[in-house]
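Batch job 17 of 40 flagged for manual review because the log was empty.
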Amino acid sequence: MDQKLDIKMASHALELSPFGVCITGPDNELFYGNKTLFQIFNIPDDEQTNDLNTLTSIKQAIESNEPYIEIDAASKDKKHTIKCWHHTSDKDGDSSTYFFLDVTEKKALFAEKTLLEDELSRLNTRDALTGLPNKFALLQGLDPLVSRSRRYNNPLTVIHLAVDTNNVDEHDNTLIKLSHMLRDQMRWADMVGRLEDDKFLLILPETPEDAAKTLIGKLTDKIEELNTNHNLKIDVFFGMANWDTGDDARLMLKRAAENANQERASSAA
């Protein structure tokens, strides 16, 4: 392309730019700013003809060397977030160009997106892999049962299952088979779900300690059957916690997890 960009064309392009553009000379002396720059920094029309170096908001933004800055919006009752890029224009570093973009709306949309994702995760009550209730659903189900035990002194047991699949390639498939087995062994009033990763939880209302131990024995046998029939290598460490006076859901879950960890440690000793 033989046609060269002359000063008039370059100036026109800069004025049309959606970015605020500011060019500085030695010692960060400001000697050019386009219209978008003035709009971003809320510089009134009557001040745009002033010496740029008297416009302290632009001067401070450049000297801050921060990738993001906040300035007062036109309404003065909120802040605008401005993103800044810096480019040294010549080898000696005497001339620099700064680009500014108002990202306030983008920042607000990102914050809203994060809130919606958090809300969606709270509303979603099913584990994506196993289809079992997830941690949020388990806690929702456990809290009223703890309240009932506290009021009527009814028995309540939770069993924490810490699982070692011992086969990375079959990890997901193993957890799915295990979840199906656990669901099949539960009574209609019981609740089984996936806490996180390789951890499951059984919630057993109206179940005293001896009945829970019987269930653990039964589940141990079923896990051995899974290992044999499907050529799996599942190790499960059970941690049981029975409701006691003063317990809330958090304390019961903590105690059950600690008991499962103790069983794991004992098996490794």
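Reviewer: the log was empty due to a logging misconfiguration, but the result itself is present. The longest strand covers residues 79-88. Unflagging and moving on to job 18.
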